[in-house]
Amino acid sequence: MSEAGLRGALLVAGTTSDAGKSVVVAGICRMLARRGVRVAPFKAQNMSNNSVVTLDGGEIGRAQALQARACGLEPSVRFNPVLLKPGSDRRSQLVVRGQAIGTVGARDYFTRRQQLREVVAAELASLRAEFDVVICEGAGSPAEINLRATDLANMGLARAANLPVLVVGDIDRGGVLAHLFGTVAVLEPEDQQLISGFLVNKFRGDVSLLQPGLDQLTALTGRPTLGVLPFAEELWLDAEDSLGTVAGTPVGRPAAPHGSEWLTVAAIRLPRISNSTDIEALACEPGVAVRWADSPHQLTTADLVVIPGSKSTISDLEWLRTKGIDTALRARAAAGRPILGICGGYQMLGRRIVDGVEHTADPSIAEPDRAYVADGLGLLGLDIEFANPKIARQVTGVAGRLPLHGYEIHHGRVTHNADPAWLSIDGTAEGSAREAIWGTHVHGLLESDEFRRTWLTEVATHAGRTGFAVAPATSVSAIRTAQLDLLADLVEQHVDLPALDRLIHAGAPTDMPVIRTGTVQMSPELS
User: Which residues form the CobB/CobQ-like glutamine amidotransferase domain (predicted)?
Assistant: First the structure.
């Protein structure tokens, strides 16, 4: 089928969270955009604390911003109309069309399902009318049948919009054939009929050894496997789900130092970490080795400690104290060793936090309808008070004469700051700088290449790493673009593109068989 005639939509679902849905959607979008197809991404409902701000001041999931970039588009709230940002195990902030409208639990969300279905349906219909192709991403797994009644992003969306569904499984986790088969088998017949094929992700080794299993999967389900994507170590930027942010694990694939010494970074893995992708810009820099940390001893040898954002600042501050990390941070500050706080991490570094907003999403730490007051770490002369509405905006500014850009997403307002401002944002003083301690509300700041290199040089001086030198030409934007192109290359090389085109254009085949698990017979070779 020619690119000019390709029109339609596809839903990419996954056997599990972090199966590769986001990167597969980004890769398909990039591949189609390179062919001249007008393509847009769509995720009806996302649950993530990694978000970005669109040009019009709305929030969407980080993955949809990356997918928009793959399509050559600016991020838009249209691409992710419903976003849930967990503030505790039971409650999440609900963001609709980019705007926070309150906090919800499971039962609250259930009562809103019809309203949210209408929002999702309207946005998808609008995108399909404007673009040739819309590639949709599911959420979690469609096999979560206990949630089927309220599902907006998986088979609920597929059924409502008559979308063919491609199911992705991560073979690196093991059991992928069972996952793919079982995902189809537990669904009701009407849902099964839209499951049109499979895609295996993160394969290592000889595909010919896997092929007999794929053939048997087709025999059992009547559905083809459209491709087997190889494991690619280079793909790590914008890891939205943060499942890889386990304490002790490295961030990214650090390149060798430009100078004679490494600069080591410990990023604190907060329980309610938000916008963990801020850390990734540091890991793009050659000679900067970044690891996640959740205990005091992991901070001891690091040249720089970063406290990232949090969706529940006071709760995570109490966790720091429980772990003894607060003592380690004070010891670092007393010794003049570098610390950076971003957004919630910045607020924790201050003297006092008055929270009449976020704590309502975590009732375990406060009484409802009462502002909660907490002492900060006292490492900066900062007082914070939370208030509505949430600040969500893209920003530009300078640090000295160095240009910078980023975005803000926070309820906290600075009511007092006894330290010099670190930055100037849109002509207004922002952040704090005290000796080797820095803090800011701005996310994405470290993606400003010239600023990042200059600041890391200052960090290295404070840390006594005289042999560390920044590489002169590292570009986070260029690395992100290269990863998108690699994704598109993998799709082009390892996916049956004519079959994928037919699925997008013609929809699910009408003869998809229904699997009845009680009557499945294994072949003699496998029994």
Answer: 264-451
Question: Which domain, by its residues, includes 353?
Answer: 263-475
Which of 111, 56, 121 has its CA nearest to residue 82?
Answer: 121
pLDDT tens-place string over residues 2-47: 456 899 999 999 999 889 999 999 999 999 999 999 999 999 999 9
Strand pairing category for 45-47 and 8-14: unpaired
Same domain, 229 and 376: no
Report the 3 state secondary structure along 213-227. Answer: HHHHHHHHHCCCEEE
What is the phi/psi pair of residue 202, to 5°?
Answer: 65, 45
Q: Is 240 a domain residue? A: no
In a domain, 242, yes or no: no
Q: Do 26 and 131 fall within a single domain?
A: yes
Q: Is residue 509 in a domain? A: yes
Model confidence pLDDT, tens digit, residues 409-460: 999 999 999 999 999 998 999 999 999 999 999 999 999 999 999 999 999 9
pTM: 0.91
- Number of domains within the chain: 2
Token output for 453: 């290199």
pLDDT in tens, 298-339: 999 999 999 999 989 999 999 999 999 999 999 999 999 999
Q: For residue 142, say if its preceding peptide bond is cis, omega within 30 degrees of 0.
A: no
Return the active site residues: 343, 443
Residues 192 and 315 placed together within one structural domain of the fold: no
**Residue 348 near residue 378, CB atoms below 8 Å:** no
Q: Are residues 339 and 399 in the same domain?
A: yes
